[in-house]
Write a structure and sequence with these properties.
single chain, 196 residues, 5-stranded mixed β-sheet, mainly beta, 9-stranded antiparallel β-sheet
Length: 196
Amino acid sequence: MFRALSQTTVRWRPLEGEGLEHLTLTSTDTTDGAVIRAVGVLIGNRGGSSYGVRYRIDCDAGWLVRKLLVDTTDGRSLHLRSDHPGEWMTARGLALPEFDGCIDIDLAGTPFTNTLPIRRLGLDRKAGTVRLKMLYVPFDTFEPVVDGQHYTCLDDFRLYRYEAEDRSFRADLPVDADGLVIDYPTLFQRLSPETI
C-alpha cells in the first residue's frame, strides 16, 4: 500500500538533451474535501523543440483529476476541468466530448502523470493489465488527443509496466512509497533528494 501523502518535492532530468523538472506534491483539506495538488515546472527539449512549461493538476482524494492548468513560457495555455470522471470541459464550461472516457491525463514531458493511474487504481498483480484512454498533451503541438495506454503491476506498489496501446513503447517503472516514478528507462531519471 502507498503511504499517506504529505508534502513531497522531487526532480527528474531527461536522459537525452538538456532539461529539468521540479515538482511539489501536496494534499490539503478544503471545504470541498481533500485536494491533491501537483505543481511542476519543466524546461527541456523534445523532438527538436525547446519548451518551458508550468503545470498544475488538482485531484480529489481518490486521485481523480479535476483540473489541469498548463502554461508555456511562449504564451500558450490549456485549462481543463472534469467535474465528472471521464467528462472534460474547458475552464469556461465548453464540453469536450472527444475526450469522453478519458479519466486520467498524460503530459508529454513529465513522468509524474504516470502516478495518476497508478495511485487512482491501486493496481496489484492480481488485477492483470488495465487498458486506459488518456487525455494526452504533447508539448510540440500542445493540442490534446486521446491516447490508449496499458498498465500492469509487476510487483505490488513497487513496479509497474506502462505500454502504449499501439505497442510502440513499453517501460517498467519502479515507484517510491508515494507512487512517484524513480526511474523511467530511456526517458527520465529521478535526482536523489540530496541534490534537490
